[in-house]
Design goal:
158 residues
């Protein structure tokens, strides 16, 4: 998917997840704001560090497009960001969870095109369209915006 699609989709998912976490862990909503932004901002980094050019074509490398490497790296980065926002276990854990959810959303969207992702050493793909397919990118972006609104409504309601 396009990087912009990853950002919009994961921003919505992160806001929704943070709203649910804040209802379980009171007082964490304040420290979640920088963590949500960080979770959405990791996608350009993921793509910049793990795309390689072979024979004139760009392809994904295993570096950050595999579950085995992206999950622990993203969770650790989220724990750091959450801890910087507020050094409490709830914020550190919440940050790790939000970054992990955001990273998994990246893998999910990339799973939906022919380039696929690596899970447990195997390359998997459900090729519904190319990475730049306007319909797939639009659908994922709309899903992200919907999740964003549901998360915001949940936050306002609690």
């Amino acid at each position: 998917m396009r990087t912009e699609t990853h950002v919009v989709f994961s921003l919505g998912i992160a806001v929704l997840a943070a709203s649910l976490m804040s209802s379980w862990l009171p007082g964490t909503l304040t420290c979640m704001a920088p963590t949500i932004l960080g979770a959405a901002a990791i996608h350009p980094i993921i793509d910049a560090l793990s795309h390689e050019v072979r024979g004139g074509y760009t392809s994904r490398s295993r570096l950050l497009h595999s579950l085995e490497t992206l999950a622990p790296i993203s969770a650790a980065a989220g724990a750091v960001v959450g801890g910087l926002a507020s050094p409490t276990m709830a914020c550190v854990g919440g940050g790790a969870a939000l970054f992990l959810i955001s990273a998994l959303s990246h893998l999910l969207l990339d799973y939906l095109n022919p380039g696929g992702v690596w899970i447990l050493g195997r390359k998997l793909a459900l090729p519904l369209g190319r990475w730049d397919d306007p319909f797939l990118n639009g659908a994922a972006s709309l899903a992200g915006v919907a999740a964003l609104f549901v998360g915001l409504l949940e936050m306002l309601g609690s």
